[in-house]
Amino acid sequence: xxxxxxxxxxxxxxxxxxxxxxxxxxxxxxxxxxxxxxxxxxxxxxxxxxxxxxxxxxxxxxxxxxxxxxxxxxxxxxxxxxxxxxxxxxxxxxxxxxxxxxxxxxxxxxxxxxxxxxxxxxxxxxxxxxxxxxxxxxxxxxxxxxxxxxxxxxxxxxxxxxxxxxxxxxxxxxxxxxxxxxxxxxxxxx
Length: 190
Description:
The chain is of the alpha/beta class. It has helices at 7-15, 37-48, 65-82, 135-146, 151-168, 170-173, and strands at residues 25-30, 51-54, 87-93, 98-105, 110-114, 127-132, 176-179, 188-189. The strands form 2 sheets. A 6-stranded mixed beta sheet has the order 2-5-1-6-7-8. Strands 3-4 form a two-stranded antiparallel ribbon. β7 and β8 (188-189) form a beta hairpin. The longest helix has 18 residues, at 65-82.
């Protein structure tokens, strides 16, 4: 049996990395929707005592999700951080269909980016984590969270993810591969 991830150990390894975006070490927690990225990033963020920026905080269309949101992150968060300045953005409220409060992103030793395509080729990433789980489980998690009415959109989204990850080679470049379908809240290396 594989041993669970030590978030304390992973946090120590991340802190030892050189900065990748100005003075900041950017860690990407990537993988397909419903794989467990948010839970993983939350646990790692607590171990690092750092901020987590979620791709879900940015508006994206269901049929072309992977470019538009990241340009916003580059412009509003990574660009300023690379210059040693704080960044920030307005969080998108999906339930209301409108922007909500402003989220400040201070210059800090570590920033976690969590979401589909955060470990994209060319991004200023110090460390990339890939979280995956079986497709059926991922869909069940997404529908439990978002509602069964969105099932057609989720199937389209998953096809778009498949195309994106195949073109980008994201999984192959990850520093850590994690199984997100283990005991809830526990992750093991693949």
